[in-house]
Amino acid sequence: MGHMTFRGGVFPHRRKRFTRDGELEEYLPKGDLVYPLLQHIGGMAVPVTEVGERVLEGQMIAKASGDISAPVHASVSGIVRAIEPRKTVSGKQIPCIVVENDGEYEQYPATEMKPWKEQEPGEKIRRIRDAGIVGMGGAGFPTHVKLSVRNPKKIRYVIVNGTECEPYMTSDYRRMVEEPEHLAEGLEIVLSLFERAVGIIALEDNKRDAVTALQLAVLHEPRIEVRVFETKYPQGSERMLIYSVTGKEIDSTQLPEEAGCIVLNVETVCAVRQAFLEGRPVTRRAITVTGKALKSPKNLLVRLGTSFAELPEAAGGFAREPKKFVCGGPMRGVALPDLDVPVIKTSAGLLCMSRDYLFKPTACIRCGACMEVCPIRLLPVRLAELAAADKEEEFRRLHGMECLGCGSCSYVCPARRALAPTIQGMRKKLLAQGKR
Ligand code: SF4
Ligand code: SF4
Question: Within 13 Å and on the Cβ side, how many CA atoms surround 427?
């Protein structure tokens, strides 16, 4: 197997053994389902249901509010109990639709449509929009917008990000091992929008079972190739992946299409298949529920809107007192103050840690390790100093806006300095002011 890669990066403990052999299990929610109207980048969805109405599984309950937006669908049948602000993974209160599950899982009729091979590109884009598909790897960018490029003929690669480089996370891996043909079918549908593109399913070389399963699944798909890369973090970062596949570098101001690429997550491509071949929108997703605090870590198929608070019990309960919860993996995940928040389209995992690593930073010893691992070749130590001193101009001059937020610099720092959060804090502040 050939290995291509980018410069820099780190090799954190993978910790995937907890769940890598655990088949995806369906989890049925116990409590109310809470659907934030903003589970994506763009405009907030607008409710099309009322308090007291009975809704069915797969029924649209909020419509997209504009071109860059996505609808929301009920994931169970039940009664709408409230439309009100609730706390979400980001910690913010966001308007949500609350549905009391009636336990019947009565399905809304599947969308009838022409076979996808007979559909025009515009029809396919509308179908992807109406199914509520967004980037389910964490970005949440509406997929119909991502696929609506100015010149589809310029797209040469549709890359499926199967690297899953975050430690602990294995839900993409299970999808690829258990449903490789679904991924191939979804990719074939996306490729039909880009006549000059090839499909690349990109994996790291620690996922040999998935590589074998996918190679078999694409045996008769001349436009799809399975490509294997070195197991290294952050291999799954969009810019690193584009570089590994094409040798082209893009900066933070450029779109992947400028390098002739579209990059999609495994879960997203499976959702595309489901929208066209089953006529069903996004109502569930695969999630890794893991960590040393749990008795029996698992990969679960969870209905959107399910409370995170239900998931530890589904994974056998706590083996020891949890000290920290993270939505996603340890490198780029979001720390949760508590679990009383709903699973949304971008929630890839729940990490229940038995220790909270609170390190006291010490003075920089000028070892240079942070610079060596930065995949963008930035000067993390200097950027963090500038961010701490609020020196905007110099921060931007030293390309601080290019930081991926991958956390590699913080990971290697022997002085335990919080480099990535400090740099990202400044970057987000400048972006909010419209500065780049
Ligand atoms: S400076 Fe940014 S891109 Fe570079 S290693 Fe740190 S977090 Fe990653
Ligand atoms: S890795 Fe830490 S100690 Fe080493 S130069 Fe960077 S900030 Fe300083």
Answer: 18
Could you give the C-alpha distances from 123 to 187, 208, 296, in angstroms and in order? 17, 37, 44
CA of 395 to the centre of ligand 2 (A): 17
Q: Which ligand is nearest to the CA of 380?
A: 1
Do both 133 and 246 map to the same domain?
yes
Does ligand 1 have an atom closer than 6 angstroms to the CB of 201? Answer: no
Q: Give distance in angstroms: CA of 393 to centre of ligand 2.
A: 22
Beta carbon of 363 within 6 Å of any ligand 2 atom: no
C-alpha 417 to ligand 1 mean position (Å): 13
- Which ligand is nearest the CA of 378, by number? 1
- In-domain check, residue 105: no
Neighbouring residues of 139: CB distance < 8 A, sequence distance ≥ 6: 41, 346
Considering its fold, how many domains does the chain have in total? 2
**Is there a domain that residue 253 lies in?**
yes
Count of alpha carbons within 13 angstroms of residue 329, beta-carbon side: 23
Taking only the tens place, the pLDDT of each residue in 337-394 is 889 999 999 999 999 998 876 678 999 999 999 999 999 999 999 999 999 999 999 9
**pLDDT per residue as tens digits for the range 100-113:** 999 999 999 999 99
Q: State both tokens at 217.
A: 């699944």
C-alpha 248/C-alpha 275 separation (Å) is 32
Tell me, what DSSP letter sits at residue 276?
A: I
CATH, residue 219: 3.40.50.11540
Whether this prediction's pTM lies above 0.90 is answered by yes
Domain that holds residue 402: 369-432
Distance CA(189)–CA(272), nearest Å, equals: 8
Q: Does residue 222 fall inside a structural domain?
A: yes
Atom of ligand 2 nearest to the CA of 363: 3
Q: Under DSSP, is residue 16 helix (H, G, I), strand (E, B) or coil?
A: coil
